[in-house]
Amino acid sequence: MKYILKVFSATFMSLILSFSIANASSGVFKVSHDLGFGKDTNLDAITKGRLFQVVIKTQNRLVRPDMNGVPSPSLSTDWSANSDATEWTFNLRKGIYFHDGSAFDAPDVKYSLMRAKDPDIGSPVRKSLNVVEDIEVVDQHTVKMKLSTSFADFPLLLTDYRLRMIPEGSGDTIGQTGVGTGPFMVDKFDPEGTTILKANPEYWEGAPGVAEVHVIAIPDAQARIQALLTGQIDMNRYVPFNQKKIFDSNSKFTTTVIPTGNWRGVVMRTDTAPFDNPKVRKAFRLAVDRQELVDLVMGGAATVSCDTPVMPSDQYRLQMDCPQNISKAKNLLREAGFPNGIELTVYPATLEPTWPTIAEVVQQQVAKAGIKVNIEMVPSKGYWNEVWMKKPVSMTRWNQRPADTILHEAYHSGAKWNESYFKNADFDKNLADARSELDFNKRKKAYQNAQMTLWEQSGTMIPYHVSRLVVTSSKVKNLDAVDHFSIQWHKVKVD
Amino acid sequence: MESNLITEDKQKNKLEKAFEILKTMASKPSGLIGLTIVLFHVVLAIISPYIAPYDYKAISPNTMLLAPSAEHWFGTDSLGRDVFTRTILGGRTALTVTFFGSLIALLWGGLLGIFCGLVGGKIDDVVMRVVDAFLSIPWILAMLLIVSLLGTSTEVLIPALGFFYGKGIVRVARAATHDVIAKDFIVSARARGHSNMSIIWNEIIPNVRDAILVEGAMRWSWMLLGFSSLSFLGFGVSPPTPDWGLMISNARGLMSFAYWSVIAPIVGLSSLIIGINLTADAFAKALGIDRSTKAPV
Lengths: 495, 297
What we know:
Chain A is α+β, with helices and mostly antiparallel strands. Chain A is built from 16 helices and 19 strands. Chain A has two domains: 28-209 and 475-494, D-Maltodextrin-Binding Protein, domain 2; 259-468, Dipeptide-binding Protein, Domain 3 (Dipeptide-binding Protein, domain 3), CATH 3.10.105. In chain A, strand 14, helix 12 (355-367) and strand 15 (371-375) form a beta-alpha-beta unit. Helices cover 75% and strands 0% of the residues of chain B.
């Protein structure tokens, strides 16, 4: 009997031990970032220089998009609205702790969101969050958000990738510490070198699959490809489609194509001549052959867009056709007082690998309408500070956001990241009407009217929404096949 | 009449001497190979606009990354452009930019070096310290700064490359001048009251010219590599201008499956550099200059 007990105990202990080992975080997951914000790179999610490759792994949102983009619980377990959708009550998850040991509760939510509205911080997300007038701490695990208008899609707004929960009062240090409730904790922050994240064993969704994540600064796109090929990094989410063949036939890598709401574009500043004339802007946009761009730049893996930033799968997207129209573009230029065409310079950098190619293809396409495009390459480092929103014409790229957020953030006349300096009262009014409209069809109409205004007037040429080619080392397992901001990073494992 | 005859004789002598040098250069296999390669590239650069089979700018999704064929001898690139067309026109760009750049480098570097070597003293000290200071700055960083501020047009690239590659020539020309100024004919010219300009033009240049020309030829090949490096980094000529460095940069990621788009510009660039180097070496030997001891850069 004693012997049987001993054998049973030994077997049981072995099982426990192997179960623990199997569930312990192990291995290192190495990824890269492009250092696009140069010296301004930081870990404060609401600032311009946020290093999102880190904050999305260290901090949680109240609400996150599920695999289909639908708002789903994260630090908030459930929510409800009053009858006119002007007050929203969120119940918070209990027993959650920040990396610094403090408990997560309602005052942290109020602090995190009200801070994003602080004009002194000037967060790019402030414009879309301005709809929140006040946040009431009902109890330690309940908050009530009072809005300035009805907003039926308010939880969708809270899925924004920057609206992360941080400890109350941590605003002065969060840029360096990155403290949150996420699956990983910042061990060493070195934006120009390697930032090291360690697994948070107490993570509320379970211990992460890897012990460490290394986020390595590699500004050049081709250098990132080489880093992936040589094993310096395990994942590259920006591999150009014309390089897919390199990885397709290699068993050391796994390729995944993910349709996204991410877009690339060419931005004309609407406050700068000759682009202060809407006819010039439309002429440029009409002269572009978007399908050819999709084929040449993306190898066909993108969805043509007619200068709307709203993603193809979004319920509010305006569906329309916009074929290249050279004669109309020429007419518009003539009417705008440029019968001999115009000349402009674009400034691509290799931080986005497709920018130089987009610039070259657009250069050839718009030449037919008498628009001469000069291309001047600029360094990747510091591109967002020194070129974007500074030069009359620049290249841009955006990650996906819900329709309301992207329309507010990139085009509203008061938005910080209104990159084309677009100001249009009708557009602003349509956005305001859409938010306050409780009837879905009317709301959709208002959002689509706003997009039609962009087609007629905007300074941003958006040729397509990209499908992302994600290449990972075959050692990487359990990586969700969705865009960055929906991935559940704690599930990732590296063999 | 007599002076015309003397001039004609001088020209004849010069032509004979040039022919003699060429003959000596071609007498060695390395010199012959170098000369042939350079001549081939120069001829190709001159006739390339007339023999290019396609428009170098013509993009098309229908002809992306086609392998070499009878239609596209060197295949096509990722935008569907003919690689043969872009390669031969790329040579024209490289040769034009670096030839004029080298000329500028020779002119300012050579003249300043000779002047400093002749006048000596504080002017020489100050100028050489400034040259030393510039030599201590990595040229590529300085070039990046210049093109960031002024753009990447050939009007900017040629003088900028000429300036940065002329610094070394200043030192060579100065050293060669020092060898000459102690000679009796310079002392005599000074005693006759000749001006510095007259001495430089009539006495020094004819005696240091060969050393400076050899140095210039070597700098040409270095400048070619430098120019292509800039283009590779995206700071050379602007797209869609066909350029070897730019072509290599654009196609480097495709090397494993579309090797043709990168091999042609690599062969073009490396063969021209090798050709210029062999030619410069043969040139130096034909002039009796030992480069192993005569390059105090």
